[in-house]
Amino acid sequence: MGAETLTRPDTSETDPERPVSHGKKGPAAGRRSTADAPAPARHAVRRRAARIWNDVLTTPGRMTIFGVLAIIMVLIGGVVASSTITSRQSHHETLLAEVEPVANASQTLYSSLTIADSAANTAFITGGIEPPELRDRYLQAIATSSSAIIAASQGLDRTDEESIDQLARINAQLTTYTGLVETARTNNRVTNPVGSAYLASASSLMQDTILPAAADLYDRQSTSVGESDEEWSSPPWGSFLLLGLAITVLLLVQQWLWKLTGRRINPGLALSTVLVIATFLITMIAGFLAANDNAKGLSEGAAPMNELTRQRINAQKVRAQETLNLVRRTDPEGSSAERAAILGGVRDTLTVYLDPEESGSGRVSLDDDGAVTDAIDALDDWMAAQNRADSFYQQGDYQGAIAISSGQDEGDSGAAFDEFDESMQGAIEEARETLRTRIDNARRTSSNGPDLIMALSTLAAFAVVVGVAPRVREYL
Length: 476
Prior knowledge:
mainly alpha; elongated
């Protein structure tokens, strides 16, 4: 019996007929102890958290927390200030190298296209074989237009698909235009009357399709220059705020340590405060100087350049219409009032930039080299020559009107317009140079700022460690 008992298998867990024991060692009791198993671990976590919190509430714990907070504020202020100045510097470089040159190329494109159309019309009305200087002027204007298209396309942002497509259309239409002009020129040489129809068709293509597209391209690019420059014409207020908070935290920590330890000055924290104040001053000076240069570049460069360019475009339209009227033998009396109004507006604009103080406009003078004065004088001569040509035409002297309109002698419309256009280009170049100089000054102002700011911020953070660590060790 005893041996049988030793060899009998225990079936308490496998026999379904056997009643289940409800003692402490049964399966249900095992399940309850498993559910209660995580309780000691949770108690351990709570004890650890309480111990850490008690350590934080101690004097050395609070010193450590305040020191870490000061280090974080110092480093964040330095990183943000450095990255802000770096972003502004990158913006200035992009503006100088890409955005502004594209706007200038767009302006050159429009002007050269208008000059080409005017030269083609003037060469045609002379009859037969045109003077070599007019032919050279036309070919030079077409070559300049092609170069401007290439320059603008190279500088455009690849994501600006609208401007890229517009340049492609202008280039294709310019080929059609030159073909029509050459056909008109060939027929004009053999005195074939159909030549005037070809030239009128070419000029219509230029005035109604090509030039509006070029003007739209210029408007878009010049607006981009103004908006890009205006975006950075305010100081970096965010950097000022963060650096100011870092200085405040450092001062509060020093005041707390003074009350706690009785030491008025903590050398490490005092040095850190001085370094952050230096960082703040560098950021403030660089920020205000760069913002001032940006603002002046906008008011003294971009705005005058844009306004003068538009007035030059208006005058060139008048010149193209003047020569086209003679090609079509249109009585100029119908357009003389509109022409006088447009050129009067051009003269008023030029007067503003002649002597801003006297006009009370607050604008900058662009007459340092006499370009504005020369443009006004040439404009007056041009308007007088136009009136003389109109008078000859209305008296039936068509050849006399042609001679004045296309002539290059003193008092002729052609010579006066050429002088006016050259003077306008000089005033525009002066405004452009002002813009680029201001942008370059803003770029150079912040050239060494980011590296210096990061170096000072790093030293300030290290000085916090040097100032707080000995005080913590005193309690350990």
